[in-house]
Write the structure tokens for this entry.
Amino acid sequence: MLEADVIMRGRDPREPIMAHPPDTDSDITLREFLEAVKKHDKGIKLDFKSLEPLSPSMLLLQEALSGTGHPVWMNADILSGPGGRATPLQPQVFLSAVRYLPTHTVLSLGWTTGWTAGTENPGYSWEMVHEMEDICKTLEHPVTFPVRAALMAQSVPQLTWLLQQSDSYSLTVWTGQDDKFVLEDLQLFRKQFDISRIYFDLPEPQRAELIITE
């Protein structure tokens, strides 16, 4: 999979580009990125930090990927989560924009989160997972929930319950650059659920160790 952020260019011509905030410009547009991906056997994960580039991006996606079997994931934080300070995207606006994408498109729907070393970081609460389920239970697309590895040990009952609500749900485990967590905590989920229900977006050393300790 290739993962990249999509933002709206901060100057004319205004169009979706591949860049991570706070950047406002790039040497590659979303159109160019999608054309390049079509030539290779790669899936893509597009991360949206704002709603501004969403509508024009959908037009480009429908045009560039029609008739292809490339895996496509659309990622956005749509709810406030544990320690989250960023403003989440409005859930219904995001979901309304992506609803016409092919039904095999995976919606990666997460929470804004934070983690601070040396403090007691709360996990995903029952209120958070119930709110997410209320939003996702009528969706036709498969959904993966990006969850922060350092917060999973505090959230075992909640995340287990959420996965049990639909066979089309999965977890994608990720980590912040400076986060600290115990790999054994992730094994609880790896052993409890089929490998098709949990993905690990971790640095190579941690991912390799997770596989070795399986």
Q: What stands out?
A: The two ends are 23 Å apart (CA to CA). The longest helix spans residues 54-64. DSSP finds seven helices and eight strands in the chain.
